[in-house]
Write a structure and sequence with these properties.
- By secondary structure, this protein is an all-alpha fold.
- The protein has two domains: about 130 residues; about 100 residues, Sandwich (Immunoglobulin-like).
- About 65% of the residues lie in helices and about 0% in strands.
- It is elongated, with a radius of gyration of 23 Å.
- This is Cytochrome c.
- It comes from Eiseniibacteriota bacterium.
- InterPro entries: Cyt_c-like_dom, Cyt_c-like_dom_sf, DUF6529.
- Pfam families: Cytochrome_CBB3 (PF13442), DUF6529 (PF20139).
């Protein structure tokens, strides 16, 4: 599942959680004045089921990414994992109370509100961050620093192919991979990638051929780059050899 699909799922998770929370407020906050409470409870359960399915999908893809990543996780990734774990724990507790420990039903509304707050925080640390960076709403300074470092790396190398390769990297790779660091971003940092013994994530020998194969047949959430021309690929490899 690529980053775009995960973002769509995260947006749906936030929207479903918001609607479920509104229904809960309507049921709990208006008391006996609520019309058709049975239908509202049914709708709340339906949205809760959809929320659970979306949450399981996102947690599964997140666990796969963490398991396959070999670089040092970023601070944002760690925060994301902690918040997601807390969200799962609170949601499971809410389900247990609603299904099996009905003597504690007075706490269900509080758990529901905590679930929604954690959902917003998890969304902000993952899909929200991705969408904001895509629109350059948040982190403009970091984007500028990344572009300056990538340009500086290219300036140090004389061959024209390296300069062109830096442009290819900036267009297709820099959003997910640092060129000046091995720290993980959305994907592992690629500094020294062709001087290492193995490639990150796949663990295959660090060769140009294996990088080209990974671009065509990616692993995990990385999208395929079958649209790159042979010349662009050659220039990209030339740039990767310099970082």
């Amino acid at each position: 599942m690529d980053i775009h699909a995960k973002t769509v799922l995260a947006v749906l998770l936030l929207a479903v959680g918001f609607v479920a929370t509104l229904i809960m407020f309507h049921l709990q906050g208006r008391g006996e004045t609520v019309r058709n409470p049975g239908r509202l409870r049914g709708a709340h359960r339906a949205f809760g089921l959809v929320f659970f399915v979306l949450l399981v999908l996102l947690v599964f893809t997140g666990m796969r990414y963490v398991a396959w990543g070999r670089g040092e996780p970023s601070a944002r990734s760690i925060i994301h994992v902690v918040l997601a774990a807390a969200l799962v724990a609170v949601f499971v507790l809410k389900l247990l109370i609603a299904r099996f420990y009905r003597g504690l039903l007075r706490y269900v509304s509080a758990f529901g509100m905590i679930v929604f707050v954690l959902t917003v925080l998890v969304f902000s640390a993952s899909a929200g961050y991705y969408l904001a960076r895509g629109g350059q709403i948040w982190g403009d300074r970091e984007v500028q620093e990344r572009e300056e470092k990538t340009s500086a790396l290219a300036e140090e190398a004389v061959p024209e192919a390296v300069h062109a390769g830096a442009a290819v990297y900036e267009r297709y790779c820099a959003f997910c991979h640092y060129a000046e660091s091995t720290e993980s971003k959305l994907g592992p940092g690629l500094k020294g990638v062709l001087r290492a013994e193995t490639l990150p994530v796949s663990g295959r020998p660090a060769t140009a051929e294996n990088i080209l194969d990974t671009l065509e047949n990616p692993i995990g959430t990385m999208p395929a780059f079958t649209n790159l021309t042979a010349e662009e690929l050659e220039r990209l490899i030339a740039f990767l050899e310099t970082i």
